[in-house]
Amino acid sequence: MNSKQFATRVDQVAKAFAKAGVANHARVLLSIADFLREIDGIAVQSLPKQTVGPFEDHNDTDGPTGAEAASACAAALHLCEALEAKKAVAADFSALSAFFSAHRGANIEQLKAALKVDIVDQYARNLNAALGDPSFDAIFAMLSSDKRVRQAEAAAIASVVVAPTAKSAKKADSLRRIKARHDNRLDSLHKRELLRDKSAA
Q: Whole-model pTM?
């Protein structure tokens, strides 16, 4: 699920906590929902692979810390498991918790600013991190349908992920090159596993 879609689910869980009188988690989750809307375009499952910072000291007016956000996400995950929510929702809360845990000392505003980077850099980093991994498909699908990514942006992303690509290349051709790089990585990993199995036999 992308960050904007998941923000709606986080809002729902925040309301459930507020109704149950758990005001602190509700407040933090509402901040997380805003954070997710601001970084629209990033797959939630790719967040744990994002490393941002270091950050300067923050003050209390900058929103919840990563530690507080991780705690609220962990509580939301427990609630989802107790209510037997869809596995995808629980998995996204788990991914969010891992991301915030890795940035415990930062605050949400700092993390938001760091992730709202240039769209080319954002997709290039996410795709490179997911090459040969199942999470690639979700990121690639988002890239393919993202109207902000035009011919020039697609070529620039392909230049980072694959190899220098002409700005004049059609968007579809740039996307094909990116997908081919992922497919080649999968083939390479598969062959490596086969060789390992043969050696072990």
A: 0.61
Location of structure tokens 């290039």? 124
Task: Name which residue leads in pLDDT, 200 or 192.
Answer: 192
Rounded CA separation 131/187 (Å): 11
Among 13, 29, 2, residue whose Cα is nearest residue 81? 13
As a whole number of angstroms, the distance between CA 40 and CA 7 comes to: 9
Residue 23 pLDDT: 93
Tokens of 55: 């950050």
Q: Retrieve residue 22's tokens.
A: 């758990």
- The b-or-e profile of 40-58 (16+ CB within 10 A means b, else e) is ebbbbbbbbbbebeebeee
Q: What is the pLDDT of residue 193?
A: 79
Tell me the residue type at 15: K
HEC string of the chain equals: CEHHHHHHHHHHHHHHHHHCCCHHHHHHHHHHHHHHHHCCCCEHHHHHHCCCCCCCCCCHHHCCEHHHHHHHHHHHHHHHHHCCCCHHHHHHHHHHHHHHHHCCCCEHHHHHHHHCCCHHHHHHHHHHHHCCCCCHHHHHHHHHHCCCCCHHHHHHHHHHHCCCCCCCCCHHHHHHHHHHHHHHHHHHHHHHHHHHHHHHC
Rg over CA atoms, the chain: 19
